[in-house]
Amino acid sequence: MATKYRISEIAEKTGVTSDAIRYYERLGVLPRPARTAGGLRTYGDGLLPRVRFIQQAQAMGLTLKDVKELVANEGRSGQQRCRRVRDLLKSRLADVDARLKEMHAFRRTLRIHLQDCEHALEQEQPVCPVMSELGASRQ
């Protein structure tokens, strides 16, 4: 006979909050659970790997919308699913590359501001050049 879990037990076993599990259900990322006569949710063993999959997918940068799409494709062939996963990962990789480019540009700006501050301190200037550039009053 299959083991039945309450939502708190699923939360404890996966490290995901009960609220998150309910949210995943509302989004359709997790299936609606069976309920006891008293209305309590009950889950089978199959939910544990599904919740762990959601955690891993999010750690890889996939959104819950992406995960929902992957879950919706469960009936498709392995090749079809693999193509969709590949496409999602390519898209996320492009997002990461774009963010890295932005971060590198910001890093260069920070280095320039740091050099400006170092120079101002060495010269004992009364005004911080970075704050002046930002339009702030004397700081």
CATH topology-level fold name of the domain at 1-62: Multidrug-efflux Transporter Regulator, Chain: A, Domain 2
Record the strand order, biggest sheet: 1-2
Give the uncertain stretches in residue-range form: none
What is the string of helix and strand elements? HHEEHHHH
Q: First CA to last CA: what distance?
A: 70 Å
Could you say which overall geometry the principal axes of the C-alpha atoms support? Answer: elongated
* Count of discrete alpha- or pi-helical segments spanning 4 or more residues: 6
Mean pLDDT equals 89
Number of strands: 2
Q: How would a crystallographer describe the biggest sheet?
A: 2 strands, antiparallel
Instruction: Tell me what portion of residues adopts beta-strand conformation.
Output: under 5%
The CATH class of the domain at 1-62, by name, is Mainly Alpha
Q: What does this 3D model show about the protein?
A:
By secondary structure, the chain is mostly helical. The chain has a domain of about 60 residues: Multidrug-efflux Transporter Regulator, Chain: A, Domain 2. It is built from six helices and two strands. Strands 1-2 form a two-stranded antiparallel sheet. Strand 1 and strand 2 form a beta hairpin. The relative contact order is 0.08. The model has no long low-confidence stretch (mean pLDDT about 90).
SSE map:
Layout: H1 7-14, H2 18-27, E1 34-35, E2 41-42, H3 47-59, H4 64-72, H5 78-122, H6 129-133
Antiparallel strand pairs: 1-2
Task: Describe this structure in a few short sentences.
The protein is mostly helical and 139 residues long. It is 65% helix and 3% strand. The chain has helices at residues 7-14, 18-27, 47-59, 64-72, 78-122, 129-133, and strands at 34-35, 41-42.
